[in-house]
Amino acid sequence: MNAGDMVKNIAWLGHDAFRVTAAGKVIYIDPYELKGAVPADIILVTHDHYDHCVPEDVAKIVKGDTTIVTDAASAKKLKGSVKVVKPGDKVTVGGVAIEAVPAYNTNKKYHPKADGKLGFIFTVDGVRIYHAGDTDFIPEMKKMKADIALLPVSGTYVMTPPEAVEAALAIKPAIAIPMHYGAIVGSDADARAFKESLAGKIEVIILPKSN
Q1: How many C-beta neighbours within 10 Å does residue 59 have?
Q2: 176 and 207 in contact (C-beta within 8 Å)?
Q3: Residues in a beta bridge with 99
């Protein structure tokens, strides 16, 4: 499958939350304020902040064989089959290769590097999807390889649109999708600014909110 076809299988659920349905798997990332609930095979939780690690939302989608992959701080809040990872770790769950990568702030204090908060790169149907988590444009991104990059654009706690543009140009995905706007901070204007700045360089798809 190519990146363009894979996008059809990605639902943005608002804020940093996504559901990816591909290769016979249902994968959630940072489920938050879920309205509908599709049972998950894999749940990826980037860090323990209240708008990313939500035990009530995770409980809505956990089934008997669901695996949750997350950091140590989040694991303490969650129930079920939990795999604890740190940046640099690689695991395979149900045939899905998952890489835990760093996510941290460089010019603000909300997500210190020492905390070990996460982004994830996971591969389904041959497509590498990068969910950046709550992060700034960090040096590690220059070595990351992804076909689809889900990048925060709101500023305040994460990258601003111009910083997210820098990140996208460093990662060079086939498709970039903005996130982390329209809920707590950030607006549709941030997503549009991100897209406009990358016009002619990287395809940006602004997903409609789905839940």
Answers
A1: 13
A2: no
A3: 90, 121
* Contacts (Cβ under 8 Å, ≥6 apart) of 8: none
**Cα separation of the two ends of the chain:** 24
| Cβ atoms < 10 Å from Cβ of 139 | 9
Q: Which fold has domain 3-204?
A: Metallo-beta-lactamase; Chain A (3.60.15)
The pLDDT tens digits of the residues spanning 5-62 come to 999 999 999 999 999 999 999 999 999 999 888 999 999 999 999 889 999 999 999 9
Q: From the CB of residue 110, how many other CB atoms can be counted at a distance below 10 Å? A: 14
Residues in the chain: 211
What is the per-residue DSSP string for 13-80? EETTEEEEEETTEEEEES--S-SS----SEEEE---STTT--HHHHHHH--TT-EEEE-HHHHTT--S
Q: Which long-range contacts (CB under 8 A, 24 or more apart) does 106-114 make?
A: 106/136, 106/137, 106/138, 107/136, 108/136, 108/157, 110/134, 110/157, 111/47, 111/135, 111/157
* Cross-strand partners of 130: 121, 149
How many other C-beta atoms can be found within 10 angstroms of the C-beta atom of residue 108? 13
The whole-model pTM stands at: 0.96
